[in-house]
Amino acid sequence: MDAIVLVGGQGTRLRPLTARRHKSLVPVLNRPAIAYLFDWLAASGIERVVLALGQDNDDLADAYPEGTYGPMALRIVKERERLESGGAIRFAVQQAGIEGRFAVLNGDVFVEFGFRDMLAEHERTGARLSQYLYPVAEPWRYGVAVVDDRSMITGFVEKPPMGEEPGNLVNAGVWIFEPELVGQIPPGAVRVEETLFPSLVARRQPVLGYTAEGIWADIGTPQSYLALNQALLARAKTNAVAADAKVADGALIEGSSIGKGSVVERAAISASVLWEGVRVGDGASVAESVLADGVVVGEGARVRGVVAGPGAVIAAGVAVPPGTVIDRDGRYDGRQ
């Protein structure tokens, strides 16, 4: 079975973290996020992965060139123009020669449920399309699916107003397509979430809403990205410190990930993600923050709830207010 992974976006919601990295290459516990997706697909019995790349995605293509990934074949299909999800699926099917049933995944999700069980339920119910649905606390941020007592989807509400949600099950970015659906995607750059999916439901075609337990995350924003890392670290009950990272004696590291080449002096790091080559000075504290590649935190600085893009500098002794976002190569010295 083939799986198309949609990775054509520019990662705008993750900026400034994606200023110098493709969104699928942001580190989750010091591994590229997409590596977890690949591992999950391989364990699920997928035979070939088709990466549907957009324009200016060369760094991802370089990191994962055509060939193999574990037991899976890896094919790359590059868009020549912006196609959105529907156009990207159609183009990938055509270019990769996909003929049978296939899976589609958004490239910015983390999943760990049993895909084989979802596939079995898809076959048992005779669904033409199946969607993995996940219960969330803030459904107004997503597209909400309405399901009946047979777990068949009867309607969609895209980002409903807060307090008016018809439920809390959201499209979690993993779908199973029967091959004839490709011909039903409208031409041009269209989103299947806004065209094909509601059309199928309106025509009373069987669309399964499959739910299962396990950690799921949309890593499309710095907040959700940080929350995923925190959840995985909490479950592991340990820090994730790269082998070549240098952590001084007396430093306090709690529930955090420290990337390769990073240097932490006698500082306190908690519930945070430090990418590669980050430097944290003596007496500084970093909490609930994401520091991208090459960020420098000066001695005695206090950093909480901060997102710092690659190359950013935080001056010694400053207290950075929670919610602060520092752009790539930016500087925070307390005078902002």
In words, what does this structure look like?
By secondary structure, this protein is of the alpha/beta class. The chain folds into 2 domains: 2-222, Spore Coat Polysaccharide Biosynthesis Protein SpsA, Chain A, CATH 3.90.550.10; 240-332, UDP N-Acetylglucosamine Acyltransferase, domain 1, CATH 2.160.10.10. It has helices at residues 33-43, 58-63, 84-96, 115-125, 196-202, 222-236; strands at residues 2-7, 27-28, 31-32, 48-53, 67-69, 72-78, 102-106, 109-110, 129-135, 143-147, 153-158, 169-177, 207-211, 217-218, 240-241, 246-247, 252-254, 257-258, 263-264, 268-270, 273-274, 279-280, 285-287, 290-291, 296-297, 302-304, 307-308, 313-314, 319-320, 325-326, 331-332. An 8-stranded mixed sheet has the order 5-6-4-1-7-12-9-13, with helices on both faces. It has a 6-stranded parallel sheet with strand order 15-18-21-24-27-30. Strand 5 and strand 6 form a beta hairpin. The chain is elongated, with a radius of gyration of 21 Å.
Corresponding CATH superfamily of the largest domain: Spore Coat Polysaccharide Biosynthesis Protein SpsA, Chain A
Report the average pLDDT across residues. Answer: 92
Residues in β-strands, percent: 25-35%
Strand order of the largest sheet: 5-6-4-1-7-12-9-13
CATH architecture descriptor of the largest domain: Alpha-Beta Complex
Residue ranges: pLDDT <50 for 5 or more in a row? none
The CATH class of the largest domain is Alpha Beta
In the CATH hierarchy, the third-tier topology of the largest domain is known as Spore Coat Polysaccharide Biosynthesis Protein SpsA, Chain A
Total helical segments: 6
Oligomer: single chain
- What is the structural class? alpha/beta
How many domains, in number, for the residues? 2
Evaluate the radius of gyration.
21 Å
> Which term fits the overall shape?
elongated
Biggest sheet layout: 8 strands, mixed
Quantity of strands, as a count: 31
The percent range for helix content is 10-25%
Separation, N- and C-terminal Cα atoms: 53 Å
